[in-house]
Amino acid sequence: MLASLFAIGLAPLLATAQLSGSVGPTTSYASKADNKICSVLDYGGVADNSTDVGPAISSAWDECKDGGVVYIPPGDYALDSWVTLTGGSSCAINLDGIIYRTGTDGGNMIFIEHTTDFELLSSTSEGAVQGFGYVYHADGSISGPRILRLYEVVDFSVHDLALVDSPSFHFSMDTCENGEVYNMIIRGGNEGGLDGIDVWSTNIWIHDVEVTNKDECVTVKSPAQNILVESIYCNWSGGCAMGSLSTGVNISDITYRNIYTWSSNQMYMIKSNGGDGSVSNVLLENFIGHGNAYSLDVDQEWSSMSTVDGDGVQLNNITFSNWKGTEADGAQRGPIKVNCADAAPCTDITIEDFAMWTEEGDYQWYWCESAYGEGACLEDGDDYTSYTTTVTVTAAPTGYSAATMASDLTAAFGTGSPIPIPAIPTSFYPGLTPYSALASAAATSVYPVRA
Ligand SMILES: *[C@@H]1O[C@H](CO)[C@@H](O)[C@H](O)[C@H]1NC(C)=O
Ligand SMILES: *[C@@H]1O[C@H](CO)[C@@H](O)[C@H](O)[C@H]1NC(C)=O
Ligand SMILES: *[C@@H]1O[C@H](CO)[C@@H](O)[C@H](O)[C@H]1NC(C)=O
Ligand SMILES: *[C@@H]1O[C@H](CO)[C@@H](O)[C@H](O)[C@H]1NC(C)=O
């Protein structure tokens, strides 16, 4: 019991009032391991990189899902048949090996559902899933499987894993609660449709994650409440976002902070086209960007999605604070674009401590449309009618310069050849160290594994 109190740690309590309660598993890994360990090697798994490990994972899960640890020891495993792991309670999966996709079904390679008090991790911080998405992408297809999906999982954590080159999305959290995701690296191909992390859930803390791809970095979808996203490194990505939002949208109490975005489509985008429902109480603070196309980008006439019924999603009480850095070409795509629905103007928008400047040319624009609040080109007042204002900025704002990360990618991973499995970084935002040390640095009493 002492071990369990110890292992869970106090960090979540310190995180912020943004969350609605504690996150993460409610009993420690050590206590689960103490109870029972089910190694896949005892259920037909072979670390020969060719025997399908899917059935062994499923059997080990069945034996250990009620209070134990499914253990995938270091080694190389082929995953030919996908696993759906259901109904766990007080259990963990320790992936210290590397799983290579060999199967070709659609769906989700690893799908975990209806599970409580759950931890998915690599205790060596070297576990990974290699999706070999390039095999699909080289042929122009993004319709292969996703790597990881959690559905109705409560009181959980996912950490210290690398998810690499998914044929489709990398990691989705659908209708989960009280989760913590941290110390992860996701590295996908350089094209759309290969999302990093997508979350539509309640009370989730995502921190210290690096994503490389060309679509969603860490993105909130509807419905979502009490999501805190911090220390995220979008190292050549699509960028973080909210959406795309459609009808019946219900999103509130979302904070992103300490977000570093390099060579992405945007630093943050809220995207919709028509629709209804609302997004409220959002704080987007401490953003650094370099080399991105868009920066602050609210687009409620987003042309990449077809118009859905409704006057527009109501955006209310959204604050952008302390954004610094440079955008690729501010004359082409200015660093502030707040394009709200004319039939449902945005209210209580704040843009403060915002200083960005263009890398190309000598001017940039700010664009505000049907958006009310304070800062940049926003209109104040409360008549909430539609308008459009574009402001041309011809001098660099004071204090725009911002730190870069030591090793920003200088070229994308393409889509035609394998993507190497990276190590998990130890910094995700300039000058910040992660909330938690890597699992590999923890005492063996925290993550005891079978010798
Ligand atoms: C495992 O098999 C995959 C092909 O499925 C291959 O690309 C990879 O290099 C192999 N891993 C090792 C360590 O040999
Ligand atoms: C939004 O979701 C919350 C949490 O599930 C719920 O309490 C609330 O009633 C929903 N609001 C609307 C308008 O559906
Ligand atoms: C606006 O949102 C912030 C969170 O970003 C919250 O702290 C504040 O209470 C909200 N204001 C109102 C009036 O709801
Ligand atoms: C960004 O990605 C590139 C390519 O994977 C890598 O070499 C670099 O180390 C990454 N940057 C950091 C700080 O992890």
TrEMBL record:
InterPro entries: Glyco_hydro_28, Pectin_lyas_fold, Pectin_lyase_fold/virulence. Its EC number is 3.2.1.171. Keywords: Carbohydrate metabolism, Cell wall biogenesis/degradation, Disulfide bond, Glycoprotein, Glycosidase, Hydrolase, Secreted, Signal. GO terms for cellular component: extracellular region. It catalyses: Endohydrolysis of alpha-D-GalA-(1->2)-alpha-L-Rha glycosidic bond in the rhamnogalacturonan I backbone with initial inversion of anomeric configuration releasing oligosaccharides with beta-D-GalA at the reducing end. GO terms for molecular function: polygalacturonase activity; rhamnogalacturonan alpha-L-rhamnopyranosyl-(1->4)-alpha-D-galactopyranosyluronide lyase activity. Residues 1-17 form the signal peptide. Pfam families: Glyco_hydro_28. Belongs to the glycosyl hydrolase 28 family. This is rhamnogalacturonan hydrolase. It comes from Penicillium angulare.
